[in-house]
Amino acid sequence: MIRAQQTVVHLVRHGEVDNPRRVLYGRMPGFRLSALGRQMAARLADHLRGNDITHLVSSPMERAQETIEPLAEALHLPVTLDERVIEAGNDFEGLTVGADPKQLLRPRMWPKLINPLTPSWGEPYAEIAARMGDAVADARAAASGHQAVIVSHQLPIWTLRQDLEGKRLWHDPRRRECALVSITSLVYDGDRLVAVQYAEPAADLLPMATKVPGA
Length: 215
Fold this sequence. Notes:
Organism: Metallococcus carri
CATH class: Alpha Beta
Helix content: 25-40%
GO molecular function, one term: phosphatase activity
InterPro entries: His_Pase_superF_clade-1, His_PPase_superfam, PGM_Phosphatase
CATH architecture: 3-Layer(aba) Sandwich
Largest sheet: 6 strands, mixed
Number of strands: 6
Pfam families: His_Phos_1 (PF00300)
Distance between the termini: 30 Å
Protein name: Histidine phosphatase family protein
């Protein structure tokens, strides 16, 4: 239950992307929502339109902007683009490891796999948590006493949640609770985080989605 005068920052993962080749697209431009992804975005807008939302933020990636667009239209609010909530940097970007994981067994890939705890193949988890935390703090200040929405990406959202809950940042990606268009809500009483809530407004659409890494 969210009480009056509490501030809530909703972290939303974007909808399904049109990616038939199952490319690990990361920060690559040109990857937009699929038809199903647009349905998910509409479902998100329907789910949140009745909330006391006063501030909207999006990752600059096309898929995130397209996800927040129906909500922005419904609420008649502008969207602030924030580089701090962008997808995590990944040295495997552009590979089709979802369709062919054996690509990671090539000798030239081995130096990238030496330390999964950092990780050695991309942006450090600690840096992801720090930039996401800064973005959430600014969104919380902008929506003080109300609610804000940030549309971001699975790994940044999950990494921040692990950090806020005092858990280790390295993890099994298969165990992330961060489905497409899911909402991880951070509830604050003043500066104190008092609850983390989770919802999947497009749960019935998820079985139709293509499982793609780097989303």
